[in-house]
Amino acid sequence: MILTTAAVVALWMNPATPADQVAQYADKPWFQNPYQLTDFVLMTTVGFLIYGPVMLIGLHGRWSWPPRRPPARQQVSRGCSATWVARRLPQPWWAGLLSTTVGTVVSM
Questions:
Q1: In this predicted model, what pLDDT tens digit does every residue of 24-36 receive, in sequence order?
Q2: Quick check: pTM over 0.70?
Q3: What does the buried/exposed string (b/e) look like for 34-69 if buried means 16 or more CB atoms within 10 Å of the residue's CB?
C-alpha cells in the first residue's frame, strides 16, 4: 500500500507538458516526451501494484479448493451439447461455427 500510495502521489505531482514545449513534442511519439513517458510508467506501476495482488489472491483461492466434479451417479444431459446441435443442423460452409456457438449457448 505504501508503494501504491507513493506511485499515485508521484503521478499526481507529475506536471503536464509545458505550453511552450507542446509544439516541440507534437510530431514525436509519446515515449519521446518525458512527461508522457513518466505518466505511462507511473500508471503502469499503479496498475501493477493494485491488480497484481488481486490476481494473486484469485489464483490462491482457485488453487485452494479441489476441482469440482459431478457426482458419480449423475448423468450429464447429452441432449443439449454442441455436438448434438451440430449433427442436427444443415451443413453449409458456416455450419461448424454456427452449430458450435448455438450448442454452447444452449448447453449453458
A1: 888 899 889 898 9
A2: no
A3: ebbeebeebeebbeebeeeeeeeeeeeeeeeeeeee
